Amino acid sequence: MDTLSEIRNQIQKWWSLVVGLKVTGRYFVSPQITVHYPRKTVENLSSFHGPIELVPTPENPRKPKCIVCLQCASACPSNCLTVVMKPTPKPSAEEIKAQKEAEAKGEKVKKSAPKELLNFTYDFTLCSLCGTCVETCPVGSLRFSNNAYLASTNKKDFLYDLLARLIRQAEGRGSISEGVNKG
Amino acid sequence: MNIGPFYVPMELIRIVLAILLLSAFVGINGFVLVYIERKVAGHIQRRPGPFEVGPHGILQTVADAVKLVGKQLFTPAGVDKVLFWLAPLLAFLPVFVLFLPMPFGPILTTLQVDLGLLLILAFAGVNVLAICLAGWSSRNKWSLLGAARAVSQCVAYEIPMLLALLAVVFMEGSLNLEELVNRQGHWPWQWNVIVQPIAFLVFFISAVAETNRSPFDLPEAESELTAGFHTEYSGMGFGLFMLSEYAYMVVVCCVATAVFLGGWKAPLFPGFWWFLGKAYLLLLVIMWFRWTYPRVRFDQLLNLNWKWLLPVSLLNLLITAFVMKVV
What we know:
By secondary structure, chain A is an alpha+beta fold. Helix content of chain A is about 35%, strand content about 10%. Chain B has helices at about 10-45, 60-70, 80-90, 95-100, 115-125, 125-135, 140-170, 175-180, 190-195, 195-210, 235-260, 270-290, 300-325; strands at about 1-5, 5.
């Protein structure tokens, strides 16, 4: 009985070699999984984490949600974000008078104007796509884009101006190779 | 015939012409086989393989060859210079002799040697010496290990190879390859593989091990010993080793075709195209093996030989002899 089971074992082992050949033979004639870039492009990139981009507000697609708190820039481990705030204008004489009147009435007055984003520069040559900025942003103003087709021969092409990109996307002028610094 | 004042025998002209053609054959094989191997590897792994150099990558091997030729022939410090540079030559030169008795077609045998098979087996053993010299002279302990493994592997697997061939030789009574082909019939059921299937299997496995191909490619062991015995070689030295590996593969497949698969004989339009076609089919199977099976561990390798292939081939030989004498 022992010899018989031994022999059966051996035959099974040798047969498994043939099964292996059948598997690779089937792979040889099946269609390729690799997408042959640049002749073909990948259809569904919705889950791809590409370079980050600004998220527009629902009311105004040309304006990002960004409140210029600069948490993303300080959280970034590679220091690739440069966020510049629009200088807030000083309140005019009428506005000061209106504020004093509102305070006298007992209403709450906002003394400072909401911060606005002037410039958001993103150096993709330093970015490691870790996503810390995306997680850190308190208003969700940053997200990963689906931009996979990024080849370029010039390092300057990867210094992205994200505000300009947002405006381009709002006007419908964004392209598949979005990311070239058209400024 | 007379060329000017000299008398040149026809056989010499025939041999010189054949050697030239065979050199071209070996060279072209080198290019084509490397390309086919990479394409087969790619398709088995469901990717394209080389694609950019030339249409569908057919010029890839040319680019690789140019790169290899252009590299500096660097001799590492402290190596045994004579042996170091002798090794690739020794690996490559016997290839020319190995193709001489090969019956490519009904009239396309260069040298009708009564001991053709023995000639091939004997000169294939020079490869073992070449590997030994390469590993020893490299002054590199990993190369030495690779060479030692290679030598023991090659020497071990020559025995079942010989015994498997011997079974067929017993049956036909001749070591002449042309004779062996002529005695087989045209139809597939008249080929020697039907009469001696175990011998064919044993020969094929031993041949794959003899040429250091996966799953028996421990001497190269790319993931363990860098490149084994040819670690220290650059440029054309490495190129010669690679070329000789592919040439030995072709030789071994041609021998298997001639002895077991009917050579150039076929039911429809027999000729040298059938010989080459069958040999290339066997080469494709060898490449298929490479990308299917994991590498065999060294003790498993030698176990396979001494515990399985050798007794099986001996048994096969005994049964053949018994049947020949009694029946």
